[in-house]
Amino acid sequence: MERDLSEKHPPEKQLSNVSDSSDNKENATSIATNLNADHHDHPETETCDQLGSPSLKAGVKVEETDNTSHEIEEVDQEEKENDEKIEDNPPPEIHYTLETVSQDIDQFITTLSATPKDAKETTVEESKDEKMSMEIPVFVEKFLDLVEEKVAKHELTEGKGKWGQNPEEDSSFLEAVNRISKLTSSLDGLRSDPNHAALISRNGGIQQRAMACLEDEFRFTLEDIKHNDQDPNTDAKGKQHEADRCVVQESESSVTDNFLGYSDDAVSKLNRIAKEMIEGGFESECCQVYMMIRGQAFDECFVEIGFEKISIDEVQKMQWEALEREIPLWIKAVKEYASIYFVKELKLAEAIFSNYSSISSSLFSNLTRSVLIQLLNFAEAVAMTKRSAEKLFKFLDMYETLRDSLPAMGALFSEEYENELKAESTTARCRIGEAAICMFCDLENSIKSDTGKTPVPGGAVHPLTRYTMNYVKYAGEYIATLEQVFREHSKIERADSTSRPRYESESQNFNNDDDEETQSPFSNQLMRVMDLLDSNLEAKSKVYKDISLSCIFMMNNGRYIVQKIKGSTEIRQMMGDPWCRKKSSELRNYHKNYQRETWSKLLGCLGHEGLQVNGKVIKPVLKERFKSFNMLFDEIHKTQSTWVVSDEQLQSELRVSITAVVIPAYRSFMGRFSQYLTAGRQTEKYIKYQADDLETYIDELFDGNPASGARKRP
C-alpha cells in the first residue's frame, strides 16, 4: 500500500505537475516558497525521513501535494478576480496632440538612430537584430494619425494662397513634415521585418502626400511674382496695354534690390520649403519646379524685350532688313541678362537654397546656360549670313556686346562653367569679328567695281565718294573695336588684299617716320581704301570733256573727303597730318588749274596788247575786245551757274578768287578805254556790264541752278 502510493505520487512528479499547470512564473515561485515553509513547519517530516520510515515519508508527501494544489487554485482564483476588475475599470486613455507626441517621436528617432555604446563588442548584425526586435510604441501611430489629418487639411487649401495667413500653422506643418522625413529615414533599418511593413508603408505614403503639398506651395510661391508685378490695366486675358512688364524692371530699384521682385517673406518661405524637400529626399522634384518656373520667367523677359527665339535656319532665311531690326533687340537682351537678370537670379538661388551651395550653383548654371546658348546661337547664325559692307556696323555692335558684357559674368559662375562660357562666347565673338574684317575689306571691291562712265551732272560729289567717306566716318566711331578686330583676326584677310598696289610706297612717303610694319593692320587697310578712292575719282574726272568741270569735280570730291576726315578725330589721327596736307595741296592745284582753264582767256580780252598803234587806240580792236569779253562772260555764266559746288566754303573760295582776278582787271580796262567809245549807242552796245554787275553774276556761279544761266542780260 505504501509502495503503491509512493509510485503513484512521487514528489518530483508532483512538483513537475505544479510547474506545468502554472502559466505564471511568479505563481511557481510562490509555490516553491510555500513548500519550503511547510518543510520547516513540520519537523516530523525530517524525523521520519531521518528514521528512514517509508510509510511515514509517503504520508507526509501526500499531504504536501494536497496543500500545493489548494494554493494553486487560490492563486488562479485571485488572478481571475484581478482581470475582471481591470475589465470593469480600464486605465484612463492618453490624449495625444501633435505638440505632445512630437517630443516622444523625437526621442524615439534618437533611440533608433543611436550608436551602440561599445562598438567593438556590438557587431552590425547584432545592432540590426536589436532594431528589428524593437517594438514600435503606440504613440507612433498616433503621430501618423495627427500628421495625416494636417496633410489632408493642407490638401484642401493648396494652390489657393492660404499659406502665410497663419504663420504658426505653416511652421507647425513644416515641423511635422520634418519629423516625418526623419522618421522615414530612421525606420529604414526595419524594412526587412514584415511586422513593421504596414507602419513603414503608411509613413511613406503620408510623406509623399506632405511633399506634394510642399511642391505645390513651392510652385505657387515662385509663380506668385507674376501676379504681384501685373499691371492694373491688364485685361482679362492677361495682356497688358503697355508692354513694360518683365521679371525685372531696371528702372524700379525696389524690384531689382529685392530678389527679382520676391518679398523677403516669400524668399524665406521658399527657403524653408526647399530645405524640407531636400532633406526629405525630394531634391529632384524641388529643383525641377524651380527650373521650370524660373525658366518661364526668362522666356517672358525675352518677350518683353521683344527678342524672339529664332533658330539658326530661320536666321539664315531672313532678309537683312528684318534681321537688322532683331540685332538691337538681341543686344538689349544680352546686356540686360548679363548686368541685371543673371546677377539677381544668382542672388535668388543662393537665398532659396542657402544651405546647399552646390544645388544653387547648379540650378543657376543650368538656367543661364539655356539662355546664353540661345543668345550665342543667334550671334553665330548672323555671322554665317551673306556678307556685305553695309552690315559692318551692326556686326561691330554685336562684337562689342559679346566683348564687354559676357566676360563680366564670369564671377557669377563656377570656375569650370566660367571656362566653358568663355570658350563659347569667344568662338561666337571671333566669328563676328572675322565677318566684320571681310566686310570692311569688301569696301575695296566696292570701289574697284564702280567703273561707271556716266559723269555726275555739274561736277558734284560722286555717290561713291559719299558712300565711302560716310562709311569711313562711321567706322571712326568704332576705331578701337576695328583696331582690336584687325589685330586679332588680320590673318583671315582676303588673299587679293595682300598684293601691294603702287600707292603704298607713296603712302610711306607722307607718313615720314611711321614705318608700315609699325602701323596697325586697320590703319594700313584704311590707307588702301583712301588711295583706291582717289584713283577711282581721278579716272572718273577724265569722263568730263570740259577740263574746268573736271577740276570742279575733283575739287568737290577732294573737299568732301578732307572734311569727312577732319570731322572724325579718330580717323584724322589715323590718317595723319601729312596725309591731310597732301590732300590740301592737291585741292589747291585743282583750283589753279580751274582758274587757268576758265578765266585766263577772258582776262586776255582785257589786255592792252594790240589796242594801240603809235600811241593811238584802235577803236575797231577795242570794240572787238568788249564784244569778246561780253560773249565769253555770258558763256561762262550760263554754263558754270549750272555747275554744283555744295561745300559753301569751297563755293565762296572759288567766287572770291574769281572776283579778285576779274573785277580789278575789268575796272582797270574800263577806266582806261571806255572813254574812246562814243557816248550813247556805242557805249550801250559794247559796254554791257558794269563792275558791280559782274560781281553779281559771279556770285551766281556754282549754284546748280539752270535758271540763273537763262536770265536775261542787261
UniProtKB/TrEMBL annotation:
Keyword entries, A-Z: Exocytosis, Protein transport, Transport
Keyword Cytoplasm (UniProt) = no
Q: Where is the composition biased (Polar residues)?
A: 14-36
Instruction: From the UniProt entry, list the residue stretches annotated as the region Disordered.
Output: 1-91, 493-520
Q: Which Pfam families match?
A: Exo70_C (PF03081), Exo70_N (PF20669)
List residues of the Exocyst complex subunit Exo70 C-terminal domain: 330-700
List, alphabetically, the InterPro entries matched: Cullin_repeat-like_dom_sf (IPR016159), Exo70 (IPR004140), Exo70_C (IPR046364)
Q: Where is the composition biased (Basic and acidic residues)?
A: 1-12, 60-72, 493-505
Q: Organism's domain of life?
A: Eukaryota
Acidic residues biased stretches: 73-86
* Gene3D superfamilies, sorted: Exocyst complex component Exo70
What family does this chain come from, according to its entry? Belongs to the EXO70 family.
- Please give the PANTHER family that the UniProt record associates with this protein: EXOCYST COMPLEX COMPONENT EXO70C2, EXOCYST COMPLEX PROTEIN EXO70
What is the stated purpose of this protein?
Component of the exocyst complex.
Designated name of the protein: Exocyst subunit Exo70 family protein
Organism whose genome encodes this protein: Salix suchowensis
